[in-house]
Amino acid sequence: MVRWGRAALAVLVAWALTLTCALAGGAQQAVEAQDDEERAVIAAAQALFDAMEALDAEAFRNSMVPQGSLLAVGPETTRRTTRDDFAARIAEQTRPMIERMWDPDVRIDGPVATLWAPYDFYSGLEFSHCGTDAFQMAKTPEGWKVVIVTYTAQMPPTCNTHPEGAPTGAQDRDESLAGAIDFHAHAGPDSRPRSVNDLEVARMTKRAGLRGIVLKNHFTMTADRAALAMEQVDGLEIFGGVVLNRAVGGLNAEAVRQMVQFSGDRGKVVWLPTFDAEWYVSAQGGSTPFVSVTRNGEPLPELAEIFSLVAEHDLVLATGHSAPEEVLVLIPEAQRQGVERILVTHVFSQRPSRAQMQQMADAGAILEIDWYAVHLGNQSLDTYVSAIQEIGAEHFLMSSDLGQATSPSHVDGLRAYVTALRGAGVTDDQIDLMLRRNPARLLGLEP
Questions:
Q1: Whole-prediction pTM value?
Q2: Is 244 in contact with 320 (CB distance < 8 Å)?
Q3: DSSP string spanning 113-160?
Q4: In whole angstroms, what is the distance from residue 439 CA to residue 349 CA?
Q5: Taking a C-beta distance cutoff of 8 angstroms, is the pair 426, 197 a contact?
Q6: Helices 198-207 and 223-232 meet at what angle, rounded to 10?
Q7: Distance from CA of residue 221 to its chain's centroid?
Q8: Are 288 and 315 in contact (CB under 8 A)?
Q9: How large a percentage of the chain has pLDDT more than 70?
């Protein structure tokens, strides 16, 4: 048996203590190093959020690798947006895009990291949605960069909002769209990808202060959907209608008759053919079947019963994607049948001359000018402004025509529209006419 002297034992104990401290110190340094990396990963994700809030497209691009992207995952579809496309969208915004995460869960393995966190999103002062962000990160010579953000976009109670409440100032009501009516709102379910469903667009527009919306679908009636949405969203007028495309039988008076008999009484608009209109199919260079509204310069006989139903039930007749020459034939015939409310659907998209537009206005029709066409670059704001000033704002109606999966929200689009028109010299009174009073009159509401 080995016997240790006191001196030797003291040396051994000191050595053991030194080794233990060294090991503990090394472990602590490793933890601190890991903590530093986690903070750096979180900071990289926050840099992306900061760029969005500042509407700084360049800073947003710098927060991601060049091949970076964002992937929205829904219950039925996914939508991928490249870094540069999303940066371009940021540059178009007029209100801060405020996204806040909390309780991030960070995992790191060398130059690869993931960050998982709940988030909520505000467009300026307006709550938009919430969900979960899943970041994939890479460590580059410039530091941590975002490779891809996969995210869900939902509404409470499916997801939670930030535990600290709304961002500073977000409780204040934004009145810029108070009393507005969006006469052209697309939403899902649809056979085409949509960014929101009926309830989501209703809740979103109600929060923004809108007075009402008109739900439009090219292939099915929306009066029933409007009635259901109104049961869920108080304080918002929601209307629907029917588009006389081939999916409902074309110029089918029975489709109109059934719409007005649906409970809820929310069917208010009858659109003549849109994607199946003869002019539209021809303009697109297609060879698919189409639905004609005139023959040899005269309205088709099938329209007589449709116009009679529109007049009897005080509905709005919208001209769909009919050619300007057809519209000028249809307006007087509809009026002869007693139709009083006529809307020329996004008038510029059918390429009328200014003289034709003046004739439509002189005949008593309201001319729709939508934001989607400007957003796409298909129409210029200057063209809109010139027509408003020449023909008169009392003859126009502003709408969003939004809801496409890759487009801004209806609320953001309308706000951008108002801001752009004001910047181009259109007065608040003119905007009030086109965004509030004219659509209200068409829908039979008090202006």
A1: 0.66
A2: yes
A3: EEEEEEEEEEETTEEEEEEEEEEEEEEETTEEEEEEEEE--B-TTSS-
A4: 19
A5: no
A6: 50
A7: 21
A8: no
A9: 90
Q: Are 192 and 228 in contact (CB under 8 A)?
A: no
Q: Please write the tens of the pLDDT for every residue from 151-203.
A: 999 988 889 999 988 887 544 434 479 999 999 999 999 999 999 999 999 99
Residue tagged 């890991």 (tokens) = 34
Asked if residues 384 and 357 have their Cβ atoms less than 8 Å apart, the reply is no
What is the DSSP secondary-structure string of 277-294?
BHHHHHHTT--S--B-SE
- Assess contact for 116 and 102: CB atoms under 8 A: no
Residue type, 60: F
Q: Nearest to residue 286, comparing CAs of 344, 328, 246? A: 246
Contact 71, 149 (CB under 8 A): yes
Of the candidates 274, 258, 268, the one whose C-alpha atom is nearest the C-alpha of residue 227 is: 268
pLDDT tens by residue, 274-322: 999 999 999 999 889 999 999 999 999 999 999 999 999 999 999 999 9
72 Cβ contact partners less than 8 Å away, ≥ 6 residues apart: 78, 79, 80, 81, 151, 152, 153
| SS3 state at 201 | helix
Alpha carbon distance 98, 370 (integer Å): 26
